[in-house]
Structure formats: structure tokens, C-alpha cells
Amino acid sequence: MIVLEYILLAGLVVCAVAAPLCKRLLTTVIVYMAFSLLMAVLWSLLQTPDLAITEAAVGAGITSILFFLTLKKIHALKGTRDE
Amino acid sequence: MNKTPSKQSWWLRLVEWVDGDREPKDQTLFVMEQRPPRHVQRSDAEFATQDKHRLHRFRRWYPVCAVLICLALMGILMAAVLTMPTFGEADNPINNEVAEHYLEYGLEETGSANVVTAMILSYRGFDTLGESCVLFLAVAAVMMLLLRDEKNTDEHDQQKQEREDGILAAHPDLILRRAAWVLVPFVFLFALYVLLNGEVSPGGGFSGGTILGAGLILYSAAYGPKQMRVLMDARRYAAVRTFGLVLYVLLYGIYIFLGANQMPNYLTGMTLLIDLAVGLVVACTVYGFYVLFSRGEF
Questions:
Q1: CB–CB of B203 and A57 under 8 A?
Q2: What is the pLDDT of residues B234-243, one digit of tens each?
Q3: Are residues B125 and B180 in the same domain?
Q4: With the C-alpha atoms ordered B124, B130, B134, B135, is the resulting torsion angle positive or negative?
Q5: Which residues of chain A make contact with B116, given a CB cutoff of 8 A?
Q6: Distance CA B292, CA B298 (A)
Q7: How far apart are CA B252 and CA B255, in angstroms?
Q8: B61 and B141 assigned to the same domain
Q9: Which of A62, A67, A74 to mutate to test the interface with B (most CBs of B within 10 A)?
Q10: Residue B182 and residue B54 share a domain
């Protein structure tokens, strides 16, 4: 279990560094989503299932949807540029 | 020549100025156009090179500044972490009689086996009430900015929206529809389970409400706004949202008026109802954000 936790923590660091370095905004959002998912698994490993459920639903789900909608609104997604 | 304009009392002048009827006397202080006109007009090429130079300078300094600010923040946070007590020590300040009391008497006093739910909905119910109000107000603020009605929508926007709706109706996303057809019942079921079983198992109002909102979003994304209006239109949405908050306020009010310390045991089922109220508010917040961001109307 400890090994799994270390792997997940390394993944967290990788995601956190990668998110601002991505060129495309869409990739940034997806990397951020991955960060939240790793975080949710880590919460459940730390025996806080309440937080894990909320993190998975809010961090990986709702926030990303709101980011995608914002990207669509400012025409930053592929295929939404033309009027 | 009389000198009435300058002899007017300063109060009247101030009132006129505040009302906007009269310009301040010394316009150079406030108006930028007093600057002498530029004699030498810059050529386009010069303008372009200057612009490029400025952009180049910005590009060079921006990462440096960002890294410096990040490092400073990291240093501050690390310094703060170093001064914190060691994790898991027995004589840490957080291990006091409050936590012991919650763990020992939580089930008895609130009737909920899940201590987290007991804490956030009963012992710290006022905090949660404030959070629910914040969520309610957040949706109200987003509505103010993004809600589309006949006053802020022109013909062009209307036509664009109708065209997009037409495209969506003509080419439904098969994968999304089939996946939603399978998933939505289970999402709703799981949401209700997390919501209503929050007393004894992990979960509760916030997580259950979020899952419920996610289910509504999935349904709305897969089947379009027309189908969604059957389930939830603007009036019903407002009613549910307000009902959740009012239910919470009323239920928590009972706690106050009966005296929280001598709570009779028969009111223990109230945690369930408060859970439901919080869940409704959270679900409506999440779904409202989605709808307002994507279309601007229900």
C-alpha cells in the first residue's frame, strides 16, 4: 500500500508540474482532471472516504465541465471557432 | 458684471458637481485630452517593431516573474509547514476534549453513526448553513451575469442559439446518448444512496448533492434542453433551490428554539432531512452553473 501511495504522490507532482506547462488549454484541463482523480484515490487511501467522493465528483467532474464550457464560450476548443 | 457663478456657496457647487450637472472648474486635472497633439506620427513599421519589442520583453520576463513568485510562495508554505506540530503526536493541540466528545457522544447526541456528518450537520450546522447560503448566492450572481432573457438577447444571438439547437437535434451524439441511457439511472440511484445514507456511511449532503447534479448534467448534455425542461424548468428549478435552503433554515431553527444541549432523542432523524436539504441546494447549484454557462437559460 505504501508503494502505491508513493506512486500516486509522484503522479500528483507530475500532474501539478505539467498542468501549467501545457501549451493547449484543453490539455491543461485534462491534466488537472487527472490530478483530481489521483487526489481522490489518495483521499480514500488516507481513510477519508467522504472527501474522496466529493473530490471525485467536484474536482474531476464538475470543475472540469465548467472549464470545458468556459473554453467553448471563448472559442478555445477545436471546432467551435467558426461562427 | 455680477460674479454669481464664483460667489455661489461651495456647498451648492459641490452638490451640482456630485449630481453631474457641472464640470469641475479645473478640467486639466481630470481630462486627459489637454495633452498637446503629437507632432511626429509614427510609421507603421516603427509601430510594429516597437510592439514586437514590447511583446518580446514581456515574453522574456513573464516566466521569470512567474517562477520567482511561485518559489516565494513555496518558501512561505514550506516555512509554515516546518513550524506545524508533528503529524500524529498525542499532545498536539488538535487532540483536545472537543474531538473526544464528538467521537464519544456523536451517535448518542445526533443519531448519526458517521461522525463527519454528525459534525458538519449538527454540531457545526451553522457553518454549513453559511456554506449553503454562499452556494445559493453564487448561483444568483452567475444568473445575474449569464442569464439570457428578452432584454439582453438580440436577434443575432437568438438565431445563433436556434441554429446550434437545430444542429444538436439533427445529429444526436449516439455514444453519449447510449451511455447516458445506461448510466443516468445508476447515477441517480447512487446519488440518493449517498445522500440519504450519509448518516451511517461515507457521504452526506455535499457529496450526494454533487453526484445528483452531475447526473442532471449528464442527462441534460445527452438529451438536450427540450427533454430537460420536462424534468426541470426555470420555475421548478427556483422552487427546488429555495425549498432546500428554507428547509435547512427551518430545521436548524428547531434546534435553536428547543435548545441544542437538551435535544430530545426523537429528533435524531433530523440529520437525514438536513442532509436532504443540503443535497438539494448543492445539486441545484452544480446544475445551475452548468446550464447558465452552457446556454444561459433553462
A1: no
A2: 889 999 999 9
A3: yes
A4: positive
A5: 50
A6: 8
A7: 5
A8: no
A9: A62
A10: no
Mean pLDDT computed over every residue of chain B: 82
Q: Spell out which residues of chain B touch residue A50, defining contact as CB-CB under 8 Å.
A: 114, 116, 202-204, 207
> 3-class SS at B280?
helix
Range of the domain at B56: 46-79
Is B226 in the same domain as B186? Answer: yes
Of residues A62, A66, A83, nearest to B210 (C-beta): A62
Q: Residue B248 domain-assigned?
A: yes
Let me know: does B174 contact B87? Beta carbons within 8 Å: no
- Whole-structure pTM value: 0.75
In this predicted structure, what is the pLDDT of residue A29?
92
Q: What is the total residue count of chain A?
A: 83
Neighbour tally for B109: CB within 10 Å: 18
Set of cell numbers at residue A10 = 509522484
- The pLDDT assigned to B166 comes to 83
Identify whether B112 is part of a domain: yes
Assess whether B188 and B271 both reside in one domain.
yes
Q: What pLDDT score does A83 carry?
A: 44
Contact status, residue A36 vs residue A57, Cβ threshold 8 Å: no
What gap in Å lies between CA B290 and CA B298, rounded to an integer? 10
Mutation for testing the A interface, residue in B139, B156, B294 having most A CBs under 10 Å = B294
Of A53, A66, A70, the CB nearest to B194: A53
Tally of domains within chain B: 2
Residue B39 lies in a domain: no
